[in-house]
Amino acid sequence: MPPSSPRPERRRPALLAALLVAASLAAPPEARAFCGFYVAKADASLYNETSRVVMVREGNRTVIGMASDYKGPLKEFAMVVPVPAVLQREQINVAERAVFDHLDAFTAPRLVEYFDDDPCNDIRRRGMLDERMSSAPGAAPMAGSARKSAELGVVIEAQYTVGEYDILILSARESTGLETWLRQNGYRIPPKARRALAPYIRTGHKFFVAKVNLGEQAKTGLQHLRPLQFAFESPKFMLPIRLGMANAKGPQDMLVYAITRKGRVETTNYRTVKLPTGKTIPVHLKKDFKAFYKAMFETAWKREDQRAVFTEHFWDMGWCDPCAADPLSADQLRQLGVWWLDDESAENTRPGLIPGRRRVPVPGGGPVDAVVTRLHVRYSAETFPEDLIFQETRDRENFQVRFVLQHPFTGPAACPEGKTYKDSLRRRQEEEIRTAANLTGWSTAKLRRDAGLGTTATPEPWWRNLWKR
Amino acid sequence: MVMLHHEDPRILQLTFLGSLLLFGVLVRDFSLQPVQVLLCLATALAWQGLLGKGRNMASAAITGLGLSLLVRADNLWVHPLCATLGIVAKFTLRWQDKALFNPANLGVVVAMALLPGAWTSPGQWGHAWILAGWILMLGTGVTLRAGRMDSALGFLACWSALCAGRIGWLGQNWGVLGHQFTTGSLILFAFFMISDPRTTPDHRWARFMHAAIVALVAFFWQYGLYRPHGPVVALVLCTPLVPVLDRLLRATRHQWPVPPSSLRGHPDAPVVAPA
What pLDDT, in 10s, does the model give residues B193-225? Predict the structure, then answer.
């Protein structure tokens, strides 16, 4: 007979959700150099209360890692996740947040910058242009009495303490019983939770319920909660986001980092759209890049009727160009759950990288046997009525969201080419303003003012170059 | 040379598929290169010209457009290879002088199953009632003219009933049904693939049965085995059913309208279904 629990504390569940199906073979990616310098990134810290989910999948084997940026009192934290089967202790792990942060930084949208050359040095300039053209784009207190649980149709299938978490694996016969059980055991379940729980019970899911063991947490000496991971096999390649909507006040952001072997991951039941990339934006946005990125994402999201999933990054995990962070080591990949990297391939994680320029692989050096797709979802109950269902495509074309700053040449440029350069520079800056306005929905007048170009465009007289040779 | 009778539904079908493709590339970011479309069309027409002695070129163009709408590839050889497989299979894999596979359907499934660098994106159309309504309306026009409304409606009715049953059983929100029904790829499948008059059973009741079985298999594939692309896979899997149903329920075989001048003495002149 399990000990009866003291009066339970009320816990606010951060109802995250996760689960899982499939896919295939492609040519290795073409290594292309990128002659820009990475200067900034728009990582997960941009959004409040963003869930980060790392999904590692090959065949039916799946490892899911979930990190929340929960900032409230630790004793109020709880997480309920549908899982396809009762998980053994060894299937559950607590990961280090630093690895998740590194993966986030590695895949983050980025800003790169170039500097115009002296227009009077034509030979040098042409050389640079050619180069650029070629590089385009203790669980006991949680349990109520067994008798009560049985009456409610809820069975505690297993209970573990893993790291700072007390974990229960529950099975339930029907959603009302599970909802009541969770309430009786101190979980503050939102009113609509029953409806959200029902489909998972019907399909035989178990419920992974985690809360913080304050004693164990104190031993870690950490101020934050570490990500939870679990490994299982399932033909379903999906993420059950519907549960998390029950207590949501508005749209929620989630970043999904899918690590697979064959190709880009996309959703099959929602449109997957690549975000704009490669656009040159006004140089003054360097200091406002995070605000720019947020506005750009918001605009893209609205243009897609708030119903699309956005690809922010797809790349081989062995290299990047330009890099927002170094590629992850074999050990870090294993920590994330990449189980197929054996020792031999681990040695190949960074083969043949040029000393001092570690980010560009030597041709033929061999990439890591893992690719990562970063998907950004902003979802609400109305716009995402179904859970996310994924497929792994055979698309191997590298993609990253990056924006470009092209700094003007600021020297004297006292030559005929210098005059031509300055004329083209004005046109280019106007184009950059229009691009930024179109991407963000910001007014061109404001952008022009911030760029120091005045509030209205001054078109060049049409006759200026009429009779010039 | 593409010669079409003015009542040939393929005129409407070509126009419609062409405009869908343009819409997809320009508005929906299909990540499709124009040269892939050109290669796909050219290959389909070339094989049709060679094997079909220049007849039924419109059907080959429809196959080329259909494959361009559905198949995505990170190289240039996947589309022409799919077109080749589809058209060659149309002339070689036959039962009692009737093609077994819808050429585009076969090309898509082979691409998904076997070809490196090829995939399909069922979610690419998004879920908009306006788009779905538009495809539905124009698809209805084409299918009515081709006389295969029973296949399209039979499939959609069974598929919707199965999805609705699942939603009711799971206790999901009914908004899910709208979400599942408004996907462009489903409606495109119903009106432009399963309703192909040359590869569906000849008899009306047989077509209903065929459509219902395809819907059942597709549903099991997608929600029982949790694998994507249920309808297109199911149509290929159900191919052996067509000759069986044609044998059980006999009827006149469909022929595309042919201009009278080109008909006389031609070896491919309309054939009445086998007795």
Answer: 888 888 889 888 899 999 999 999 999 999 999
Q: Which positions 294-353 of A are in contact with B (Cβ < 8 Å)?
A: 304-305, 307-308
Q: Check if the beta carbon of residue A376 is closer than 8 Å to that of residue A310.
A: yes
Q: How far is A259 from chain B (nearest CA, A)?
A: 18
CA-CA distance, B89 to B83, in Å (whole number)? 10
Among the partner-chain residues A236, A307, A386, the one whose CB lies closest to the CB of B226 is: A236
Least confident of A40-49, A60-69, B46-55: A40-49
Q: Is the peptide bond before A322 cis (omega within 30 degrees of 0)?
A: yes
> What pTM does this model have?
0.83
> Which residues in B187-206 are b (16+ Cβ under 10 Å) and which e?
bbbbbbbbbbbbbbbbbbeb
- Cβ-contact B92, B53 below 8 angstroms: no
On whether the CB atoms of residues B13 and B62 are closer than 8 A, the answer is: yes
DSSP string, A98-112: HHHHHHHHHHS-EEE
Nearest to B126 among A27, A268, A271 (CB): A271
Report the distance separating Cα A109 and Cα A375, nearest Å.
11
End-to-end CA distance of chain A: 97
A424 Cβ contact list (under 8 Å, min separation 6) = none
pLDDT band at A122 (very low <50, low <70, confident <90, very high): low
Nearest CA in chain A to B126: A271
Taking the C-alpha atoms of residue A389 and residue A254, their distance in angstroms, rounded to an integer, is 15
Residues 6 or more apart from A383 whose CB is under 8 A from it? A251, A305, A306, A307
Q: pLDDT of B246-271, one tens digit each?
A: 888 777 776 666 655 544 444 343 33
pLDDT tops 50 at residue A29: no
Rounded CA-CA distance B169/A199 in Å is 8
Residue written as token pair 């050990």: A331
Bridge-partner residues for A376, per DSSP?
A: A255, A310
pLDDT tens, A222-262?
878 899 999 999 999 999 888 877 666 788 889 999 999 99
| DSSP annotation string for A401-453 | -EEEEEEPP-S---SHHHHHHHHHHHHHHHHHHHHHHHHH---HHHHHHHTTS
In this prediction, residues A309-326 reach a mean pLDDT of 89
**Yes or no, beta carbons of B117 and A199 under 8 Å apart:** no
Contact yes or no for B29 and A274 at CB 8 A: yes
pLDDT at B38: 93
Contacts of B117 in chain A (CB under 8 A): 26-27, 394-396
Q: Please check whether residue B123 is in contact with residue A272, taking contact to mean a CB–CB distance below 8 angstroms.
A: yes
Distance of CA B156 to the CA centre of its chain: 14
The strand pairing partners of A389, in sequence order, are A238
Alpha carbon distance A327, A322 (integer Å): 11
